[in-house]
Protein backbone atom coordinates (compact mmCIF):
# COMPACT_ATOMS: atom_id res chain seq x y z
CA UNK A 1 0.00 0.00 0.00
CA UNK A 2 1.34 3.49 -0.89
CA UNK A 3 2.16 6.09 1.77
CA UNK A 4 -0.72 8.29 0.51
CA UNK A 5 -3.16 5.38 0.78
CA UNK A 6 -2.00 4.64 4.33
CA UNK A 7 -2.35 8.31 5.30
CA UNK A 8 -5.81 8.46 3.73
CA UNK A 9 -6.96 5.34 5.57
CA UNK A 10 -5.52 6.64 8.86
CA UNK A 11 -7.24 10.00 8.44
CA UNK A 12 -10.55 8.31 7.63
CA UNK A 13 -10.30 6.09 10.71
CA UNK A 14 -9.57 9.11 12.94
CA UNK A 15 -12.56 10.95 11.52
CA UNK A 16 -14.80 7.94 12.08
CA UNK A 17 -13.71 7.39 15.64
CA UNK A 18 -13.80 11.10 16.40
CA UNK A 19 -17.37 11.35 15.19
CA UNK A 20 -18.29 8.14 16.95
CA UNK A 21 -16.71 9.25 20.20
CA UNK A 22 -18.65 12.50 20.07
CA UNK A 23 -21.89 10.59 19.97
CA UNK A 24 -21.35 8.84 23.28
CA UNK A 25 -23.53 6.23 24.87
CA UNK A 26 -25.54 8.67 26.92
CA UNK A 27 -27.04 10.59 23.99
CA UNK A 28 -27.74 7.74 21.60
CA UNK A 29 -31.47 7.44 22.18
CA UNK A 30 -32.10 11.18 22.23
CA UNK A 31 -30.47 11.73 18.86
CA UNK A 32 -32.37 8.96 17.13
CA UNK A 33 -29.18 7.37 15.84
CA UNK A 34 -29.29 4.46 13.40
CA UNK A 35 -30.09 1.33 15.36
CA UNK A 36 -31.23 3.19 18.47
CA UNK A 37 -34.60 2.83 20.14
CA UNK A 38 -35.84 6.22 18.94
CA UNK A 39 -34.85 5.49 15.34
CA UNK A 40 -36.50 2.07 15.30
CA UNK A 41 -39.73 1.61 13.43
CA UNK A 42 -39.53 4.97 11.68
CA UNK A 43 -40.02 3.47 8.21
CA UNK A 44 -42.36 0.82 6.92
CA UNK A 45 -39.93 -0.63 4.40
CA UNK A 46 -36.22 -0.62 3.73
CA UNK A 47 -33.83 -1.09 0.88
CA UNK A 48 -30.12 -1.56 1.23
CA UNK A 49 -27.39 -3.97 2.13
CA UNK A 50 -26.78 -6.09 5.21
CA UNK A 51 -23.04 -6.53 5.73
CA UNK A 52 -21.87 -9.37 7.97
CA UNK A 53 -18.63 -9.12 9.95
CA UNK A 54 -18.01 -12.49 11.57
CA UNK A 55 -16.13 -15.77 11.61
CA UNK A 56 -16.40 -19.30 10.17
CA UNK A 57 -19.78 -19.94 11.79
CA UNK A 58 -21.27 -17.32 9.46
CA UNK A 59 -19.02 -17.37 6.40
CA UNK A 60 -19.95 -18.47 2.89
CA UNK A 61 -18.32 -21.73 1.77
CA UNK A 62 -17.54 -22.85 -1.76
CA UNK A 63 -18.91 -26.07 -3.23
CA UNK A 64 -15.63 -27.74 -2.32
CA UNK A 65 -16.73 -27.69 1.32
CA UNK A 66 -20.28 -28.95 0.82
CA UNK A 67 -22.27 -29.62 2.98
CA UNK A 68 -20.50 -27.18 5.33
CA UNK A 69 -22.22 -23.80 5.44
CA UNK A 70 -22.43 -20.68 7.58
CA UNK A 71 -25.54 -18.85 8.70
CA UNK A 72 -24.55 -15.72 6.78
CA UNK A 73 -24.52 -17.81 3.62
CA UNK A 74 -28.24 -18.53 4.07
CA UNK A 75 -29.47 -15.24 5.47
CA UNK A 76 -30.66 -13.67 2.21
CA UNK A 77 -33.37 -16.34 1.91
CA UNK A 78 -35.15 -14.75 4.85
CA UNK A 79 -35.31 -11.19 3.49
CA UNK A 80 -37.27 -9.70 0.62
CA UNK A 81 -35.59 -8.94 -2.69
CA UNK A 82 -35.19 -5.31 -1.59
CA UNK A 83 -32.37 -6.40 0.73
CA UNK A 84 -28.92 -7.50 -0.39
CA UNK A 85 -26.73 -9.54 1.95
CA UNK A 86 -22.97 -8.99 1.63
CA UNK A 87 -21.37 -11.70 3.71
CA UNK A 88 -17.84 -10.62 4.68
CA UNK A 89 -17.48 -13.25 7.41
CA UNK A 90 -14.30 -15.33 7.24
CA UNK A 91 -12.95 -18.15 9.35
CA UNK A 92 -10.42 -17.73 12.13
CA UNK A 93 -11.08 -14.06 12.81
CA UNK A 94 -11.76 -12.37 16.11
CA UNK A 95 -13.21 -8.92 16.70
CA UNK A 96 -9.64 -7.60 16.87
CA UNK A 97 -8.02 -9.47 13.97
CA UNK A 98 -10.93 -8.61 11.66
CA UNK A 99 -10.00 -4.96 12.25
CA UNK A 100 -6.22 -5.41 12.13
CA UNK A 101 -6.39 -7.21 8.79
CA UNK A 102 -8.33 -4.33 7.23
CA UNK A 103 -11.53 -6.31 6.78
CA UNK A 104 -13.68 -3.88 8.73
CA UNK A 105 -12.13 -0.95 6.85
CA UNK A 106 -13.11 -2.65 3.58
CA UNK A 107 -16.73 -2.72 4.73
CA UNK A 108 -16.55 0.87 5.94
CA UNK A 109 -15.33 1.94 2.50
CA UNK A 110 -18.57 0.79 0.86
CA UNK A 111 -21.28 0.83 3.54
CA UNK A 112 -23.83 3.59 3.04
CA UNK A 113 -26.57 5.31 5.06
CA UNK A 114 -29.50 2.94 5.35
CA UNK A 115 -27.28 -0.15 5.31
CA UNK A 116 -26.72 -2.51 8.23
CA UNK A 117 -23.69 -4.15 9.81
CA UNK A 118 -24.32 -7.45 11.61
CA UNK A 119 -21.44 -8.22 13.98
CA UNK A 120 -20.88 -11.67 15.49
CA UNK A 121 -17.58 -12.58 17.11
CA UNK A 122 -16.50 -14.51 20.19
CA UNK A 123 -15.51 -17.98 19.00
CA UNK A 124 -11.98 -16.95 18.06
CA UNK A 125 -11.71 -14.14 20.59
CA UNK A 126 -11.83 -16.84 23.27
CA UNK A 127 -8.84 -18.85 21.95
CA UNK A 128 -6.41 -18.01 24.74
CA UNK A 129 -3.57 -20.04 23.21
CA UNK A 130 -3.62 -18.14 19.91
CA UNK A 131 -2.09 -14.68 20.22
CA UNK A 132 -3.28 -13.62 16.76
CA UNK A 133 -6.91 -14.29 17.66
CA UNK A 134 -7.27 -13.98 21.41
CA UNK A 135 -9.08 -10.89 22.60
CA UNK A 136 -9.98 -10.57 26.29
CA UNK A 137 -13.70 -9.97 26.95
CA UNK A 138 -13.08 -6.40 28.11
CA UNK A 139 -11.18 -5.55 24.91
CA UNK A 140 -13.78 -7.36 22.79
CA UNK A 141 -16.44 -5.17 24.36
CA UNK A 142 -14.57 -1.97 23.50
CA UNK A 143 -13.90 -3.08 19.92
CA UNK A 144 -17.63 -3.67 19.54
CA UNK A 145 -18.37 -0.28 21.05
CA UNK A 146 -15.90 1.91 19.18
CA UNK A 147 -15.02 0.14 15.94
CA UNK A 148 -18.26 -1.65 15.13
CA UNK A 149 -21.13 0.26 16.77
CA UNK A 150 -20.02 3.89 16.93
CA UNK A 151 -17.98 3.90 13.73
CA UNK A 152 -20.86 2.30 11.82
CA UNK A 153 -23.27 4.93 13.11
CA UNK A 154 -20.83 7.67 12.12
CA UNK A 155 -21.27 6.45 8.54
CA UNK A 156 -25.05 6.62 8.80
CA UNK A 157 -25.52 2.86 8.88
CA UNK A 158 -27.08 0.68 11.57
CA UNK A 159 -25.04 -1.76 13.68
CA UNK A 160 -26.69 -4.96 14.89
CA UNK A 161 -24.81 -6.85 17.61
CA UNK A 162 -25.18 -10.64 17.39
CA UNK A 163 -24.13 -12.76 20.36
CA UNK A 164 -21.92 -15.77 19.46
CA UNK A 165 -23.88 -18.74 18.21
CA UNK A 166 -23.86 -21.81 20.43
CA UNK A 167 -21.50 -24.74 20.01
CA UNK A 168 -22.68 -28.32 20.39
CA UNK A 169 -21.73 -28.43 24.06
CA UNK A 170 -24.23 -30.61 25.90
CA UNK A 171 -24.55 -30.98 29.66
CA UNK A 172 -25.87 -34.45 30.44
CA UNK A 173 -26.52 -33.48 34.06
CA UNK A 174 -28.95 -30.70 33.17
CA UNK A 175 -30.16 -32.12 29.87
CA UNK A 176 -29.45 -28.73 28.32
CA UNK A 177 -26.81 -27.21 26.09
CA UNK A 178 -24.19 -25.08 27.80
CA UNK A 179 -23.75 -21.36 27.16
CA UNK A 180 -20.78 -21.07 24.82
CA UNK A 181 -18.33 -18.25 25.58
CA UNK A 182 -20.44 -16.77 28.41
CA UNK A 183 -18.06 -13.86 29.10
CA UNK A 184 -18.33 -12.76 25.47
CA UNK A 185 -22.09 -13.22 25.38
CA UNK A 186 -22.39 -11.03 28.48
CA UNK A 187 -20.04 -8.41 27.03
CA UNK A 188 -21.97 -8.24 23.75
CA UNK A 189 -25.29 -7.83 25.54
CA UNK A 190 -23.85 -5.23 27.89
CA UNK A 191 -22.34 -3.03 25.17
CA UNK A 192 -25.52 -3.24 23.09
CA UNK A 193 -27.48 -2.09 26.12
CA UNK A 194 -25.01 0.70 26.97
CA UNK A 195 -24.94 1.95 23.37
CA UNK A 196 -28.67 1.46 22.79
CA UNK A 197 -27.80 -0.75 19.83
CA UNK A 198 -29.94 -3.43 18.23
CA UNK A 199 -29.20 -6.89 19.62
CA UNK A 200 -29.82 -10.37 18.23
CA UNK A 201 -29.23 -12.84 21.06
CA UNK A 202 -28.24 -15.74 18.85
CA UNK A 203 -26.56 -17.44 21.79
CA UNK A 204 -29.89 -17.83 23.59
CA UNK A 205 -31.91 -18.52 20.43
CA UNK A 206 -29.57 -21.24 19.18
CA UNK A 207 -29.41 -22.94 22.58
CA UNK A 208 -33.19 -22.90 22.85
CA UNK A 209 -33.43 -24.46 19.41
CA UNK A 210 -30.86 -27.14 20.25
CA UNK A 211 -32.55 -27.90 23.57
CA UNK A 212 -35.76 -28.41 21.64
CA UNK A 213 -34.40 -30.94 19.17
CA UNK A 214 -32.09 -32.78 21.58
CA UNK A 215 -28.49 -33.91 21.59
CA UNK A 216 -28.74 -36.66 18.98
CA UNK A 217 -30.71 -34.61 16.46
CA UNK A 218 -28.22 -31.77 16.92
CA UNK A 219 -25.64 -33.85 15.02
CA UNK A 220 -27.67 -33.11 11.89
CA UNK A 221 -27.30 -29.39 12.59
CA UNK A 222 -23.56 -29.40 13.16
CA UNK A 223 -20.95 -30.87 10.85
CA UNK A 224 -21.26 -34.49 11.94
CA UNK A 225 -20.79 -36.64 8.84
CA UNK A 226 -20.20 -40.35 8.37
CA UNK A 227 -17.24 -41.62 6.40
CA UNK A 228 -18.14 -41.85 2.73
CA UNK A 229 -21.29 -39.76 3.16
CA UNK A 230 -19.93 -36.73 1.27
CA UNK A 231 -17.04 -36.60 -1.24
CA UNK A 232 -15.59 -33.49 0.41
CA UNK A 233 -15.30 -35.32 3.74
CA UNK A 234 -14.36 -38.88 2.73
CA UNK A 235 -13.25 -39.83 6.25
CA UNK A 236 -16.25 -38.23 7.92
CA UNK A 237 -16.05 -35.54 10.58
CA UNK A 238 -17.37 -34.74 14.05
CA UNK A 239 -17.35 -30.95 14.34
CA UNK A 240 -19.21 -29.34 17.25
CA UNK A 241 -18.65 -25.75 16.10
CA UNK A 242 -19.47 -25.53 12.40
CA UNK A 243 -22.73 -26.21 10.61
CA UNK A 244 -23.90 -28.30 7.72
CA UNK A 245 -26.58 -26.96 5.38
CA UNK A 246 -29.52 -27.68 7.68
CA UNK A 247 -27.85 -25.99 10.63
CA UNK A 248 -26.85 -22.91 8.66
CA UNK A 249 -30.43 -22.54 7.42
CA UNK A 250 -31.82 -22.86 10.94
CA UNK A 251 -29.36 -20.36 12.42
CA UNK A 252 -30.14 -17.88 9.63
CA UNK A 253 -33.82 -18.33 10.39
CA UNK A 254 -33.22 -17.60 14.07
CA UNK A 255 -31.27 -14.44 13.21
CA UNK A 256 -33.93 -13.15 10.84
CA UNK A 257 -36.75 -13.99 13.24
CA UNK A 258 -35.00 -11.92 15.90
CA UNK A 259 -34.52 -9.06 13.42
CA UNK A 260 -38.26 -9.12 12.72
CA UNK A 261 -38.85 -8.16 16.34
CA UNK A 262 -36.33 -5.33 16.56
CA UNK A 263 -38.57 -2.59 15.21
CA UNK A 264 -36.01 -1.47 12.63
CA UNK A 265 -36.90 -0.58 9.03
CA UNK A 266 -35.16 -3.85 8.14
CA UNK A 267 -37.63 -5.73 10.35
CA UNK A 268 -40.35 -5.20 7.77
CA UNK A 269 -38.25 -6.95 5.14
CA UNK A 270 -38.13 -10.33 6.92
CA UNK A 271 -40.18 -12.91 5.02
CA UNK A 272 -42.96 -14.88 6.80
CA UNK A 273 -41.09 -18.21 6.68
CA UNK A 274 -38.68 -16.87 9.30
CA UNK A 275 -41.44 -16.92 11.92
CA UNK A 276 -42.00 -20.68 11.96
Automatic annotation (TrEMBL):
Record flagged with keyword Hydrolase: yes
Keyword check for Hydrolase: yes
Record's keyword terms, sorted: Hydrolase, Signal
InterPro entries per record: GDSL, RhgT-like, SGNH_hydro_sf, TAT_signal
Pfam families per the UniProt record, alphabetical: Lipase_GDSL (PF00657)
Signal sequence bounds: 1-39
Matching SUPFAM superfamilies: SGNH hydrolase (SSF52266)
Coiled coil: none
Family membership: Belongs to the 'GDSL' lipolytic enzyme family.
Name used for this protein in its record: Rhamnogalacturonan acetylesterase
Source organism (scientific name): Streptomyces glycanivorans
